[in-house]
Amino acid sequence: MNELANRVTRPSKNTRFHLSVSLAIDPFSPLFTLLHAAIFPSSIEFSPYTLSLFFFSLLSFFQLTRPDCYSFFFFLPGKRGDLSIRNRRFEETMLGFSNGTGGGGVGDDDLAQLQSTMRAIELACSYIQINTNPAAAEATILSFHQSPQPYKACRYILENSQVASARFQAAAAIKEAAIREWSFLATDDKGGLISFCIGYVMQHANSSDGYVFSKVSSVAAQLMKRGWLEFTPAEKEVFFYQINQAILGSRGLDVQFIGINLLESLVSEFSPSTSSAMGLPREFHENCHKSLEQNFLKTFYSWARDAALSVTNKIIESHSDVPEVKPGASWCDVLLSSSHVGWLINLYSSLRQKFALEGYWPDCPVAVSARKLIVQLCSLAGEIFPSNNAQMREQHLLLLLSGVLPWIDPPDVISKEIEEGRSGSEMIDGCRALYYIGTVTTPVDFDRLLRSIRPFGTLTLLSMLMGEVVKVLMANSTDKETWSYEARDILLDTWTTLLASMDGSGGNAWLPAEGVHAAASLFSLIAESELKVASASATANEDDADCLASVSAMDERLGSYALIARAAVDATIPFLAKLFSDRVAHLHQGRGTVDPTETLEEVYSLLLIIGHVLADEGEGETALVPDALQSHFVDVVEANNHPVVILSSSIIKFAEQCMDADMRSSIFSPRLMEAVIWFLARWSFTYLMLVEDCNLGTNQLKSLPSRACLFTFFNEHNQGKFVLDIIVRISLTSLMSYPGEKDLQELTCFQLLHALVRRRNICFHLLSLDSWRNLANAFANDKTLFLLNSVSQRSLAQTLVLSAYGMQSSDASNQYVKDLMAHMTSSLVDLSNNSDLKNLAQQPDIIMLVSCVLERLRGAASATEPRTQRAIYEMGLSVMNPVLRLLEVYKHEISLSLSSTLLNEAKTEKYKDLRALLQLLSHLCSKDMVDFSSDTIETQSTNISQVVYFGLHIITPLITLELLKYPKLCFDYFSLISHMLEVYPETLAQLNSDAFNHVLTTVDFGLHQQDGDIVTMCLRALKALASYHYKETKAGNTGLGLHAAGHTDPNGVHREGILSRFLRTLLHFLLFEDYSLDLVNTAADALFPLILCEPNLYQGLGNELIEKQGNPNFKSRLANALQLLTTSNQLSSSLDRLNYPRFRKNLNNFLIEVRGFLKTR
């Protein structure tokens, strides 16, 4: 054992293997990593990465133990002689050799050509390594990979080249060619390629170029998967027999190493997350994955387990009986019925004690792998435990917890050792073990585990452990993330896992009393820690990026803190109320004499913590008062004495002080106001004017006194309307008194004010408040609010229009919206009628006004509801002509000729204007906008269609290919074109020739973008266009008319019609270009009507493809595939719902059949 000096490091998910140097004890490591990975093929779900890790460990061990020189000659036993015959026939036909020397059996001319090819590839690889003319070198290698049937040259290079990278490229070329040409390879050739790869790696088992034989192994695995559903069980058995013989070790450690490598490659290839792209449907990969899991996974486990245990015995040089994990009828027999777990824990404990004084022990591979296995064993759950043996799981977890305890208990002692220099990895793994136990148990079962061996429960240990971690964090205030940061996050996840399910069913109703006390103590320490961090941050210099990252992380962390607080609300709510009142009192006492910065940061942090404790986010759903806050304080009968009411009222009273100018200047900084607004938004959506039976959780809580207190105090008959008025006035203050504070204004508009109008009952009261009328008046007339950014403008307009729901009637709601928006619409109309519009429109204040009004119109339109639809429609109609006049004025300012200057501020604003106009036109041509009018459907369609038609004429010249390189503008434009063609395809047909061709040129441009969404929208546009033309012509109409017909230009050159052009383009795209397979179905929907529109061209293009095929077999296959594309699956020439899925299936089958050999031309 002392002679073994190589260390093996466990790979990441993207790493095959890595070798380095370490200590003699390291050879233990592969056993634990091996068992860890093999034991969890699926938990119990199939997890190829962990099984790959297991195979990697065996590879690592064999690399440790194989001799310096080892000879091997690949042969097959007599009963497998048929494979030897197949290999020989394959070598003579496809690889061109009749012996294994790499040269025999090849003519002089062929040999010269092979040598020339090898030298070219070697030279290209060398050029890439030294970065000399890399483009030409890459082109040479790419040409080699794309050449048809390069197998002779590949074998020659593999057998004869002295350049490892050239051999690597040869293996890659085999893979690419075989996958590409698979459909027309003979069955013997497919199996021969796989056998050649397996034989090659075994013949070169002692090679020092590990990455080459790893590549060849992966090629064998990929080809085996490609033919998996074709090969018979007997053929698969031939391949696996070779691999199994290697793993048994009878041919030496080198070959045993290779056998494990092959299995690792195979399992990795069959994993959905690590499989290679083969241009096949997802169902193929899923079927292969399922087949391997059901039929071979346990066999692989048995092979590798036997190998692992046998070599481990040799390493540890022990004659004692090592309990063997014997596979049985189920994974339960493999993992639980044997004494494997107890043996593993005892072995780790013994080694831990033996090497306790060695500093390297916690981080050496054997320790890391063993702990990882123990931690993963903690996560076993589900059917692996017999349903009639409830105690088996508890005994299993108790055994594991007993083994883990020395890693984490006592927490203070272990923490001190880590701070003095010991590695924290063992402590962190202990935290992970608690987390996994928490994921498979209830809080009561989790707490009970430790009571059988300690005088306290597991929850108390969890609280002590996290408390110690928090103390370390407080003592070591540093930006560098140490072990304590990782431990804190893992322990927080443990608390979250245990408490999250209880939070929706009665708070801590099921938490033991000791657990409640532990949670309360822990939360007290957490709050102290957060306030200390907040205080220290007052003098810290953080850039914006770091600040944003920390806020995001903090929000997730506060959610976990809130669950801990709710587990002990009887203690934590009064505690938070005292903390907040103390900080506010300190602010007032030191006002004008003491720097309040540190205290302000503490108040900021407290507002975030309290907001998370009192209310959930409620994004996208009705916010409920947390059950934990309703199920406690049962002795409270007066609402004024309810701790939640006291805490909420104290914060609202504090926030109200921001309306005083002196208080704003001394206390309410923009940062603090952000926390105030955030809290009020979260709180009001949960507590303000609660609707009975809606916001108060489960039925069993509705009769509790605490529930009645929460319901009555802030409802509309008590303090609700008073608090609502305060919140509106605070909102107006934040918008008017903090100019330029973008984040604060967005919070106010998008979160707080929007939260108020999300509930209908609040809207009824809003419109009766003077403060709300003041806000609406400021929106319409105050220039300060014109300075809000575009997001805030839209959100504020949307909120004010939504509040119209509070009016008594539909007429009143429409009049409210008209009055609200009248100033904006009239200003736009007046501006467009100005005789000096061209010059006036260039003034900065006018540009800002136009942009602001357009954003507000967008916001108002997005708030449309049935009772306000008439006002919104009339508003949109009244500004359409002014908008088009302004667009005519601005179109030259934002054309491509000036696009290079769009980066400066003025041009960027004009770019935004164009985006806003595109979005406005998109809203107009949407059906929702059409339905707003009370006129007949026919009248609406005519009016809107004409507006869209006129708008297209204006916008089309502005949109150039260069301008479409701006991603957001590109998305908005193609979204408009796609939607417009689906709703008003006849509008495009009415465009003049130049405008029509320009639009379709942009669609062709979009088809070749890398953004899948853009390509999808272009394909949808083509589908709509072709479908319109086909249906119209079938009905006897002209459809696209001259646009679809070919013509001869003045130079005598024939020009194809637009549909012919796109049929040719789309077929070329599908057959020869690279694209995501997710696009195939959308492309099929576009191709189908194009073929129906141009059947003669489709037939001609098919004949051209067929004639270009030199191989008669290819010609026959292509002709048959083209025929089946338009005839199979009962496909008919009708654009109905049944035919589209039929054609999608046909196209998928067509591409699988022909794309491989067409791309090799």
From TrEMBL:
It comes from Thlaspi arvense (Field penny-cress). It comes from the Eukaryota. SUPFAM superfamilies: ARM repeat (SSF48371). It is found in: Cytoplasm; Nucleus. The lineage of its organism: Eukaryota, Viridiplantae, Streptophyta, Embryophyta, Tracheophyta. Belongs to the exportin family. Its main location: cytoplasm. GO terms for cellular component: cytoplasm; nuclear pore. This is Exportin-4. Coiled coil: none annotated. Keywords: Cytoplasm, Nucleus, Protein transport, Transport. GO terms for molecular function: nuclear export signal receptor activity. PANTHER family: EXPORTIN 4,7-RELATED, EXPORTIN-4. GO terms for biological process: protein export from nucleus.
